[in-house]
Amino acid sequence: MERHVQQQEREDARAAIICTLLANINRGKRKPFKMEEFMLVKPKYRGHTKPAQSPKSMLAMVEMMNAAFGGVDKRKK
């Protein structure tokens, strides 16, 4: 599955490069377009990933889920 996603990203990048080239040829005196402006989705390899979750926020989420499902907190307090 990951291989398919990578192939799709490459194909999208190729199409975006062609669109960027055509747009920049016909842009006049405006600022140049960037390839990212023609991408349908932001590729993973460009650093567009979710920020890491802190340990405190993970613990808070587990505590909320535990309470929501009627769980018991068995940690020593």
Low-confidence stretches: none
Q: Would you report the number of β strands?
A: 0
What radius of gyration results from the CA coordinates?
A: 22 Å
Question: Biggest sheet: strands, sense, closure?
Answer: none
What is the arithmetic mean of pLDDT? 84
Distance between the termini: 45 Å
Approximate shape: elongated
The count of helical stretches stands at: 2
- What structural category arises from helix and sheet content? mainly alpha
Return the string of H and E elements. Answer: HH
Share of helix, binned: 40-55%
Strand content: under 5%
Could you characterize the architecture of this molecule?
- The chain has 77 residues and is mostly helical.
- It contains two helices and no strands.
- The chain has helices spanning 2-25, 55-68.
- It is elongated.
- The two termini are 45 Å apart.
- The model has no long low-confidence stretch (mean pLDDT 84).
